[in-house]
Amino acid sequence: MRNTSSEDGAVLDVAVVGGGPAGLAAAVALLRTCPPGTRLQVFEAGATYSASQGAAVGLFLNGVKALGALEPTLPHRLIDEAVLFSHWRDYDDVSGELLPGSMPLDRAGGLRAAGYTPCHVQWSTLRAGLYELLPPGSVQFGCKVVNCEEVAAAATTAAADGDSSSGGYYELRIARRRGGAAADAVGSGAGQQGEEEGGEEEEVVVRARHVVAADGYFSRVRRTGGDGGRPTFRGKVRWFGSLTTSELMGAVAAAAAAAAAAAAAAAAKEGEQQEAAAGEALRLPECLDTARHPDGMRSVHRWMPGGPNRVLDVQAAPRGFVFYPISLPDAGPGGSRLVWSMYADLPVLQAAGVDFPPPPPPSAASGGGAPPAAASADAPAADDAHGAHVGGSRARGVAALQRALAVAASYGLPADVRSIAAATPPERVSEFGMYQHTPEMSTPGAWARGRLVHVGDAAHAGPPDGTGANFALEDAAVLGACVRQHGLGPEAFAAWEAARMPRLFDHLYNKSIAPGEKWGRMQTVDFEPLWRPEQVLEAAADITASSRPHLVPPPQVAEAAARAVAAGDNAGATQAIREWAWSALRRAVVVKAVDARIIASAAEVDPAAAGPQQQPAAGPQQQAQQQAQQQLPVVAATAAASALS
Ligand SMILES: Cc1cc2nc3c(=O)[nH]c(=O)nc-3n(C[C@H](O)[C@H](O)[C@H](O)COP(=O)(O)OP(=O)(O)OC[C@H]3O[C@@H](n4cnc5c(N)ncnc54)[C@H](O)[C@@H]3O)c2cc1C
């Protein structure tokens, strides 16, 4: 940190800290519901967004409904880019043998019962979809908030904008990378989150009347300006990486060429071992041999300890390796994107002679930062980078990959599976400890205090079971509704916490509710649309000429909505657009399922089935039946999703 300066003194109405799904969705929700001219800025620590960040996010029914509350076309826009897995396959992680219980997912059942079945989108696609809804320049990149402090109301008389009418404000100290501000290079792949660019940092101070902390589970804002809460280490480490099919093929071919060259050299030089020169050969994973496994590219593959004590949940098992494609085989240059993640408990790392936390990265070791504190259940690592989704830089990635490979080799993960990791470009490998909030961190006042509110993982980080992003989207939809009802301020934030805490607490911690019941409750929810029908009709006018006409309400819907708006029937216009958006989403999922050969034709699911808003009210018995029907496929798909995040 070289310089200290302050911003021009203007006080923001809202500072959103963190540009992940929760922060972006909250920003969209607030801009939809706050008065025009509200000064809102998102501060994101990462230098930019990269399309290769993250793995897949399962979009459950609650998540798509929350997205639809932010913007009616967003769910089907995202589903256009989603993947539907047809199977999940479990293998013994030493013998490689397919384990019993591997099964196809009942997509048709889900579509028939709920009109939807969970789809997976790239995490970065979800983030980009939300980002595109914000006005240009809303996100300032390379801005890491290091401290958040409330300045008492009395002190605001001296506030530079001269407005003391609305109480105190917050001072955010931000470590800003020079040149990082307002870089709008989303998805350019030009940079990676957390990348150490070696550039100069300056400190800036930003004032804001309201703060939305969306800075993830190691939330700095929560630690410095909130209840001081920090998550607990779960005794588990996770790696993940991604590569394209062509990178995998290329690495396998290069390794084969290197092996051949080494063999030739060894033959020429008697007595030298071929393996010593060539290292371990890479092999194409057997599960991707589509001649033998036609659905191999449409499945989730999971390797974990088999045997009588087999644990079905890969994250509950002491170790696990998960691998899946997240774009369709014919997608874009480079072929499909393949994502893997690996989990291991500390004893598994110890057996492999791998320390956790890892030694500091080269820049820190050479004086750039303090080594992280030892991790234990009682004392989580002091270095926030450790609990966050780090990696991205080549230096970190090389170390992370070597550590992952050492652990995998030590317990005997089959060589063809290890090849997936070994072929991954190191800059796309990350490693991090897994942390989680305790139930005590969900007590009133912990998520909302005055004009500071925490959303997403900053408020409630549970196990990575695939629900985190969906609940983060719900947070935003409900926050918008509360602000619409109470106006921006403490009352809205308190109402938001009162609405959110029981739902999240039950899902994360309430053991008296059976898992199936929890998943059922998760889906049966609805959100008030935050958009105005006129906005949707205006936006549609801009899209008409584009190549995606299905994003635009058809003329009869647009005309009906416009007529309702003209007659002052806002509710009628909203309903017309919601019904259209729901049917467009349903159609997008069915098309995807047919394309992916998950169902043979649209007729396999009931084409007349209508969306939730269109269904006639069901009696209690019918409701119970519907819920039970709905839960089975959703639970099955959810179990697979839990292995993905
Ligand atoms: C790089 C990355 C990849 C992920 N990939 C997946 C995935 O593939 N599947 C999945 O299910 N979940 C993934 N997650 C987690 C998932 O996004 C969250 O569990 C959930 O969506 C809640 O989102 P969030 O916005 O609350 O938190 P996060 O997604 O963690 O976002 C927090 C954001 O805040 C930024 N930030 C952190 N500290 C600061 C600070 N001090 N100042 C400013 N900005 C800060 C981070 O850079 C990040 O962009 C990923 C998270 C990250 C950061």
TrEMBL record:
Entry-linked InterPro entries: FAD-dep_Monooxygenase_BioMet (IPR050493), FAD/NAD-bd_sf (IPR036188)
Superkingdom assignment: Eukaryota
Regions of compositional bias (Low complexity) in chain numbering: 371-382, 607-632
Record's keyword terms, sorted: Monooxygenase, Oxidoreductase
Annotated region (Disordered), positions in chain: 354-390, 606-632
Coiled coil: none
Single GO molecular function: monooxygenase activity
Keyword check for Zinc: no
Keyword Oxidoreductase set for record: yes
UniProt xrefs under SUPFAM superfamilies: FAD/NAD(P)-binding domain
Protein name as annotated: FAD-binding domain-containing protein
